């Protein structure tokens, strides 16, 4: 089946292997990672919503009951940080925290950021153009979402730790690759400790001097609890009166940075490369540009794989996947499935109207930051179209070795 996530050739173009997987069946056991690969859009979409699967199993089973070893004690700071975030919580805790975070992370919050996002995107692209080009990744794609999330969290402009947000995030996200090395784990642990320590200091500052930022909003929610929505009405939470703990606040802020910028960075860079390679330009009109962004999210999916544990036996066709197994939902394959996207599934169509891609997930783990990512991407591509209409590649880019979060080492361009 040619699925080889450690092969540079596969990472550069996994789609032929995905097509063979889809043709061969609905579920495939992959020994090197001990996972069931799920390549079809219909199955991926359904399993994202299936409560018989979970990002964790510890809300129902001990490690021993589930047949899994306990995490390495040396990695505890990473697991503490990761296990208290929305992405890896299930059951009542996930419901409680998502409701609380949603109160502070509202569409109004995102809309209020729109002028800031557009100003930042215009300035970053303008700097690139003034220099005649450079590395789009380092000069534009990475700084934009980091600056936006720093603005959201209330990280001061003159805070020297702003420069550490991206390296911390990259080191933590290394643990989401397949079979991460001990060196990767060591870097993730160090970043988890340092990032958590910084956020504790920032939370303490906001308790004394609250502002209009997300941390201040989360603190307000934490003090109020989820039994009250802030409008005098009782909430419908499973745990009325429960509030965000400090660790949950820290984990939520880290997740917003990690998840919020990885999708934006890789879609911006991979999408720009795709446009230049195809020799096409999106229509700059707001609706047309938004449609083009959705197609770029589908065509070159920033997150190729999403893993879930099987909490109760499931059947896919004639395959029974038992409790205790892990499934790898192949987003990159699902987003090119002809059964859902028709005969043009492998074709870039910037006007594609019917586009139910799974790049932001689905179900209870649908990306909370999707509206912000869309805002950043439309602002960034809009500024590239306006300020750099003659943008072109200066060198053929090289893919990073990671497969799960798939992107380039750099993207050198000229204007």
Question: How would you concisely characterize the structure shown here?
Answer:
This protein is of the alpha+beta class and 415 residues long. It contains 17 helices and ten strands. It has one domain (8-414): Cytochrome p450 (Orthogonal Bundle).
Order of helices and strands: HHEEHEHHHHEHHHHHHHEEEEHHHEE
**Alpha-beta content class:** alpha+beta
CATH superfamily (homologous) name: Cytochrome P450
Strand content: 5-15%
Mean pLDDT: 90
* Total of helices: 17
Highest-level CATH class: Mainly Alpha
N-to-C CA distance: 41 Å
Sequence stretches where pLDDT stays below 50 over 5 or more residues:
226-241
The CATH topology is: Cytochrome p450
Largest sheet: 5 strands, mixed
- Helical proportion? 40-55%
**Overall number of strands:** 10
Strands across the major sheet, in which order? 1-2-8-5-3
Q: Any guess at the CATH architecture? A: Orthogonal Bundle
Large-scale geometry: globular
Number of domains: 1
Summarize the helices and strands and which ones pair or pack.
Layout: H1 8-12, H2 15-24, E1 28-30, E2 35-38, H3 41-49, E3 53-54, H4 63-66, H5 76-83, H6 91-104, H7 107-130, E4 133-135, H8 136-141, H9 143-153, H10 165-173, H11 182-208, H12 214-224, H13 246-278, H14 286-299, E5 305-310, E6 314-316, E7 319-321, E8 326-330, H15 331-334, H16 338-341, H17 370-387, E9 392-393, E10 412-414
Parallel strand pairs: 2-8
Antiparallel strand pairs: 1-2, 3-5, 4-10, 5-8, 6-7, 9-10
Helix pairs in contact: 5-11, 5-13, 6-12, 7-9, 7-17, 9-13, 10-11, 11-13, 13-14, 13-17, 14-17
